[in-house]
Amino acid sequence: MRVAMIGAGYVGLVSGTCFADFGHIVTCVDTHAGKIEALKRGELPIFEPGLAELVATNVQAERLFFTTDLADAVRAAEAVFIAVGTPSRRGDGHADLSYVHQAARDIAAALDGYTVVVTKSTVPVGTGDEVERLLREARPDGQFAVVSNPEFLREGAAIADFKRPDRIVVGTNDEAARTVMSELYRPLYLNQAPLLFTSRRTAELTKYAANAFLATKITFINEVADLCEKVGADVQDVARGIGLDNRIGSKFLHAGPGYGGSCFPKDTLALMKTAQDYDAPVRIVETVVSVNEQRKRAMARKVIQALGGTVRGRKIGVLGLTFKPNTDDMRDAPSIAIVTALQDAGAEIFAHDPEGVEQAKLVLENVTYVDSPYQAAEGADALVIVTEWDAFRALDLKRIRRIMAEPVVVDLRNIYRPDEMAALGFRYSSVGRGGSAV
Length: 438
Hints:
Elements: E1 2-6, H1 10-21, E2 25-29, H2 33-40, H3 51-60, E3 64-67, H4 70-76, E4 79-82, H5 98-110, E5 115-119, H6 127-138, E6 144-148, H7 158-163, E7 168-171, H8 175-184, E8 195-198, H9 200-231, H10 235-243, H11 264-277, H12 283-306, E9 315-319, H13 334-344, E10 348-352, H14 357-360, E11 367-369, H15 373-377, E12 382-385, H16 397-403, E13 408-411, H17 418-423, E14 427-429
Parallel strand pairs: 1-2, 1-4, 2-3, 4-5, 5-6, 7-8, 9-10, 9-12, 10-11, 12-13, 13-14
């Protein structure tokens, strides 16, 4: 089957490459000529484990192509995916749908024969209706169906998520479109991935509801962590104790500095705005958004407290800048608020991240970026673990203790054990563990 993927960003590139790996012929389209030329050379705009190799394999097999020519790609395609960005709109928090609408107009001009137009981008309820209106307005005689097929990809594990999904949600009431979508995902039948067909609006809302629920789990355990610190309990044991209940589950119950990334912050905000527009406010989600924003700067106060109440003129080593490991994504990363707050308090920041430095430089100023965790720790008054990269899980702690100016470690991801850190002579602070050594 021939597929056009409009947008060669994170979702479009991963989805297009995986469809090509299934055997479909995929053309990824982007308006950014420099990005397309780089992709043709095998240079990816994002870091995602295994993606570069998968792109190279499918380009060589002539199943994956890159172009700026949307019209040619759409004319040849049986299914056209809209996978452009939907960032929060500046000023009001609604999802900015201008890129989606423009893609719809461009697709309309190139339609040739029956085509399934699929919104892969995360979009508010009713966006599919608007896309269909735009297409019909431009091409009243056009033969097409508009389908919602939200993505559920975790950065750092996106290829596995696409190829071995928990579920595939497809929103359409059009039988011909249903047949096309079933054929697109047919290779996954061997993995028994459930293909859930719903109405288009239901599919759109399912994506937002899923992300809001996961964000709520994260925020819930973070608040429990604060209580654990006050009463002398261990949040990790609490999380295990509740996570073993099948009704709750263990995932997304890891206490830390708050959620970030390209999805949860903007999607919870967009869901709030949609709910307000329909006079059905989601109070729990509103609280989640508020608590999460406050938490990031609270983590900076935790560092300041660990150093006796002031960081002015102190050197702070920061390990990890991206919002999670195995990505270079800095969008709404907790590190941004934490580093900025420490700088506002007068600290000097030395930071290391295995993949995110170039992206971090775009959003964090006056930071000294170093090439290893040990360079970040050298002469530091405190070392702060912000992102749980594997490379930080087995550091030479004796060396770290020896080269730091003060033996203060603030572990915002609970990588290390308080008793072991105390035995090594560290003043150690973690999240939600009342027994932390201080």
